[in-house]
Design goal:
- Strands 1-2-5-4-3 form a five-stranded mixed sheet, sandwiched between helices.
- It is extended.
- Helix 3 packs across helix 8, helix 15 packs antiparallel against helix 18 and helix 16 packs antiparallel against helix 17.
- The protein contains 22 helices and ten strands.
- Helix content is 57%, strand content 7%.
- The protein is an alpha+beta fold.
- Bound molecules: cytidine-5'-triphosphate and magnesium ion.
Amino acid sequence: MLTNFERLNVDKKRLVDYQHVISAMAGNYQFERNRANSDFVKLLDEQILTFFEAQKITKPLINRRNGIIKHLRKILTNKFHNSKLSSFGSFESGLSLSNGDIDLCLEFDGEPPKKVLKKIARMLNEDGMKDVKLITNAKVPIVKFIDTQSMIPVDISVNNNLSVYNTELLKRYCNIDRRVKPFILAVKYWARQRGICDPTSGTFSSYAWTLIAINALQTISEPVLPNLCLKNGSNLVTIGGNQYDVSMANDDIDFKSKNSKSVGELIYEFFTTLATKWPWDKSVISAGTGKLVSRKEKGWEHKKPYISDAIQDQKLVRLGKHSLPVEDPFDEIHDLSIVLDAQGVYEIRDEVLRIYSMLNDSNDWANLCQIKYPELDFGAPQLDLFADLRGKQESEIKDDLKTLYRDLAIIERSVSVRESERNEAIRMSKALRRNAELAREQSTLSAELRPRRSKINEVQSKRDSSNNNYIPVHFIEDELLKVYLSLTKESGTGVELSFDKEKALFSWFFELQSMHEHAKLTRKYHREFLRLVNQQEQSIEHIKDIREEIISVSSFGNFTDFDDLAKRLLIELNPLKKERRKLRREVGRLEAWLRKQSSQDSNRPKFKRKHSPKNKGSRDIKQVKNKVVSGDSFSLQDLDLLLKNGGLNSVNQQTNSNQKSTRKAKKNKPTLQPHRGKRGKSSKNI
Ligand code: CTP
Ligand code: MG
């Protein structure tokens, strides 16, 4: 059966790159006839098993990968405190090809994942990693890069914990039947070699191909794999606020396949089914249920724009959802075909038709998987760090090392000059920035003095005009009480107040009442007056302090000039530091090789040297180290002495300890930064 998009009347000019699709459209494929003979399939099986053996992960590769992970764990957990770096993907599931990548997940809650990835990308660039790329528009954003020494590709994601569970699922599937691993690796290898395993260029991910392969083994007439996803809620995990059911059966479940086909036969059947019964027409590949689920049942009908429209119309860059749906086992709403584009789908179809026709022409496994885009191949990982040194003379390597020391000394000097210039620029910027702040503060304070003075005068005149003979309020209140009591108290003797006396007391009472009002007002103005005078005094005091604090560096210019200078120096420093790291790494490599050689030599019998002068060595080594730091030329004897005394590392230790003392000195160095002395204290009292 031809798939829908092959049946449509697509302009052939748009399909020139897909010759097998064109051929199928022209009716040149006889899908009904199975032409493979059993001898060929037997041979294919042998070839795939040989290929599988060659993909076995060797001890040196494991060591190298672990070395990279250890290095990354060190730098990442150092930068992101309380973070954890774990490995997942094919390296953990056992489905890695010999040139597979390393997938790492950083668990860190401190900042949003995209921000963390941005920082990681910057760090990796500084660390000298190759081709560092930040991919933030994917479902799981990642940083991709290549380890410069081994050329092993690495992906780092953040808080991508669901992958740890689906990796475990893949691992368990592999353990069910010994044919699963070679089968999946063969599918992945074919997809990789033929350029259809790269989500960044519109084709399926390696993970998607793995799920397609697993689902094929679950859905053939005698299944090789059962379904391990239980979906019974026995293991629910919350990741990024979403809950996932990651319950899965153990790989020791009671399952024995009745299928006795060889890996070769299974592969032949897989590609034949893919070519002739293109599963995506009506179904969703669902390794999480062990079935092909109907698109209708899943609600995953292909949305517009369709593949055929998109391939004809160059403006339609994106495909509608669910073009070739592959369900993620634990995240059932995620369709892994979201990454596909029209060219990608046609390329996949073209490759499926290609391998189908080649299988029926009894082609070799090597031919079937011939690399399509050699320029995109990373090649095998470089595990022998000394490969280029093995054929070289020791003297030649030592000469190289001397040149490297010299280059390194030059770079060290350039770095240190720029670093100290930059530190000075930062100090100046800080000082000038503080000056500007103080000047602003001073002008604000000064601007307040004049209006406050008028206010003081105003309040003072109001206070004085309301009652010149200021009588305290409490005195009037006491007097008022006394008069009030005299007027209202009943006489114990029966003798009443005389009318005149009563009149006089009343008039005194009213006068006191009026005085009381005035006194209250006067008290209010008086308090306001005191507050303002106090404020005025403090402001004047502060202005004096500020004048003392402002440093006379204003003539140097504006703080933004120094900020710009510091920025420019940083831009110059970055490539220098990168170069320095590269040189240091190369020095370390050559030194390690020479050490290795000399330790081999030292196993040979040696003659004892007579009369070696005491302490001469320790005196000489200091001189040699100084020569390295200064970049002076030095002899082969100097080099030998240095190598025997820890190589460049020992020089770095020496400079580090010097740096420590410089740091101490820096602490004691008088700073341009103004400090809060008296002023800090007085401001508290405001
Ligand atoms: N993964 C995922 N969702 C995706 C892509 C990948 O959950 N859309 C997870 C899977 O756990 C997968 C891991 O990320 O195992 C690594 O993905 P990838 O590198 O594509 O697959 P590998 O299985 O590692 O294959 P390869 O050896 O080619 O790297
Ligand atoms: Mg991987």
